[in-house]
Design goal:
6 helices; 158 residues; mainly alpha
Length: 158
């Protein structure tokens, strides 16, 4: 019964973690937008800024991307590699949005970059809204199912 309960708790924590990661990704896009707007930072300095902030320590892909850039790999390849090796509770669509965001960085003038940040921030907010609805809808269900399956196992063992 304990294992079944722990499974429910684990699944519910994944739902919470996805929400947290999406919030951090939105914050990351906002910082990138601000830096582009006020200092016209290049990609390397943006990554250095992000990796030095405590609030992004759990976003290991940023460090991986910066390391790949420092080793001479181009940004697009570094970004894609770092996200493909990043283990997180993000779903496939979340990761595709972030990969696509990275592919668009540095590809247009300042106004285009700012518009791109706004677009991807909005897309991430939609994902965040969906993640919150999913947690609200399914979080308690996972807990109930895990308790019920634990009770069923105990009954079967008796």
């Amino acid at each position: 019964m304990f294992c079944a309960l722990m499974t429910g708790i684990y699944i519910r924590s994944l739902l919470n973690d996805r929400i947290t990661y999406l919030e951090k990704l939105i914050e990351m896009v906002e910082i990138i937008r601000s830096q582009l707007n006020y200092s016209a930072s290049n990609i390397h300095s943006l990554l250095e800024l992000l990796t030095n902030q405590k609030s992004f320590k759990q976003m290991y892909f940023l460090n991986t991307c910066l390391n790949e850039l420092n080793n001479g790999t181009d940004f697009v390849s570094s970004w894609e590699y770092s996200l493909s090796s990043f283990k997180s509770p993000l779903n496939k669509e979340d990761k595709e949005i972030i990969v696509s965001f990275g592919f668009q960085l540095g590809k247009s003038d300042l106004e285009g970059q700012l518009s791109n940040c706004d677009l991807y921030k909005d897309r991430l907010r939609l994902q965040l809204d969906n993640a919150r609805k999913n947690k609200e809808k399914n979080g308690d269900m996972y807990m109930r199912l895990s308790v019920l399956s634990g009770v069923l196992i105990v009954i079967l063992l008796l």
